[in-house]
Amino acid sequence: MVITVASGKGGAGKTAVATSLAYVMENSVYVDMDAEEPNGHIILNPVIEKEEDFCLPVPSIDAAKCTLCGKCSESCRYGAIAVMARTKKTLFFRELCHSCGVCSRVCPEKAITEENAVKGKVRFGKTAAGHGFIDGILNVSEPSPTRMLSFINERIKKDYAGKNVVIDAPPGAACMAVEAVKGADFVIVVAEPTLFSLNDAKILIELIREMGKDFSIVINKSGESDHIITDYASGSGIGISGKIPFSMKTGEGYSEGRPLIELGLKKEIEGIYCSIKKQAVKT
After folding, report:
1. Cross-strand partners of 42
2. One-letter-per-residue 3-state SS of 68-128
3. What domains, with CATH codes, occur in the chain?
4. 97 backbone dihedrals φ, ψ, rounded to 5°
5. Cα 218 from chain centre
6. Nearest alpha-carbon partner for 202 in 6, 4, 8
7. pLDDT per residue as tens digits for the range 5-47
8. Please, are residues 99 and 147 in contact by the beta-carbon 8 Å criterion?
9. 132 dihedral zone (left: phi>0; alpha: psi -120 to 50; beta)
């Protein structure tokens, strides 16, 4: 089973839930897809066994061959190439490039070729508890990790078939979240009992429903304001798979890099996993 742990906003607690789920699930692999700021390794203390550069092709323009015809600029839907007729230059904006390859294919003079550029790295290893571990780390200044997450998804299918996979998704409901959710059998939406968190969770839930995924909510920092989430869930026909109680002790322990199951919350995490398995069987 592939479980994606997602949240509508940063700081809701998805990494706390995902890392502990990876502990309690048998034959599991933890995958950190928050490639712009991965931090699951802080909790799981993995031994990294292999690192792979993640590369994408980017255009290289031969000024001697370029006739400034402008076909590359006209064909680039992302505005990554601009032809400056007056100054007789063709400008390439690397941050806007989506590595689609259109510019090199439409150039009549074959003045544009593609070369691989390193966008980040993907690490593979094992956690201190012996479970599988993968994370992606995007290079600073790169605009989007979506293609990297697609690469990681392909590796999961190829190399980890038959294992239980826990994906720690990027926050929000943008393209990166779509990539983290698309291969999931079940999605956990982690939300705090606040109106702010609920608002962002609703946006994410709309996306998950559009993608046709089964899902439930886990309330983190649970307390007297839980009704903010439970009232919405009840009225929307959404299940609550569990609650992580608000506790100063939990916050202090987690800030030291300790998983929730070592902070007196093993029962709650196991309960979340059991709830997910029951819902998965029903569907």
Report:
1. none
2. CCCHHHHHCCCCCEEEECCCCEEEECHHHCCCCCHHHHHCCCCCEEEEEEEEEEEEEEECC
3. 2-45+128-282 (3.40.50.300), 56-118 (3.30.70.20)
4. -70, 135
5. 18
6. 8
7. 999 999 999 999 999 999 999 999 999 999 999 999 999 999 9
8. yes
9. beta
* Vertex 11: Cα angle to 6 and 14 (nearest 5): 30
pTM: 0.92
Token pair recorded at residue 91? 């400008």
User: pLDDT, tens digit, for every residue of 196-249?
Assistant: 999 999 999 999 999 999 999 999 999 999 999 999 999 999 999 999 999 999
As a whole number of angstroms, the distance between CA 216 and CA 205 comes to 9
Distance CA 159, CA 149 (A): 15
For residue 238, the SS3 value is: coil
Q: Is a pLDDT exceeding 80 seen at residue 283? A: no
Q: Give the list of residues 6+ apart from residue 37 with CB closer than 8 angstroms, or none.
A: none
C-alpha 281/C-alpha 260 separation (Å) is 26
CB 45 within 8 A of CB 209: no
Q: State the maximum Cα–Cα separation within the chain, in Å, rounded to a whole number.
A: 69
Q: Let me know: does 119 contact 140? Beta carbons within 8 Å.
A: no
Tell me whether strands 186-191 and 132-138 are parallel, antiparallel or unpaired: unpaired
The one-letter code for the residue type at 241 is S
For residue 176, give both structure tokens: 């990166």
Residue (of 90, 97, 91) closest to 116 by Cα position: 97
Q: What is the pLDDT of residue 242?
A: 97
Q: Residue 143 — pLDDT band, cuts 50, 70, 90?
A: confident
What is the residue-wise DSSP string for 174-207? SHHHHHHHTT-SEEEEEE-SSHHHHHHHHHHHHH
